[in-house]
Design brief:
By secondary structure, the chain is mostly beta strands. It has one domain (about 1-105): Sandwich (Immunoglobulin-like), CATH 2.60.40. It has one helix spanning about 40-50, and strands at about 1-10, 20-30, 30, 60, 65-75, 85-95, 100-105. Strand 2 and strand 3 (about 30) form a beta hairpin.
Amino acid sequence: MARILEAHVQITNTTQSQKTITGYMTRHDGKSGTAMANPDVQRELSSIRARSPQLARHSVLDSGDTVSGWLTYAFDWDPTATGKPTYQVLVSDEHNVNFEATRQL
């Protein structure tokens, strides 16, 4: 089974210098998003991504600039698991520094 995470992300450069976003990663309950081989999951991911503007993989932000968009990933899911799931979005910059936001579903 799979859980699909569709998160709207907004990133603002609060530094005094230009920043380059070099990548994103998501985790669900501490596990990275997986490239699930299930064709039904892949079709659903493609459908969601086609209707929601995805966050650009590489963005250059001047001081004070903001970029926003959607990140859509599939995760393995155990329907018998208890507790509220959490997810993290990690953003990497040109210095390989990761910035993280965590939310509970």
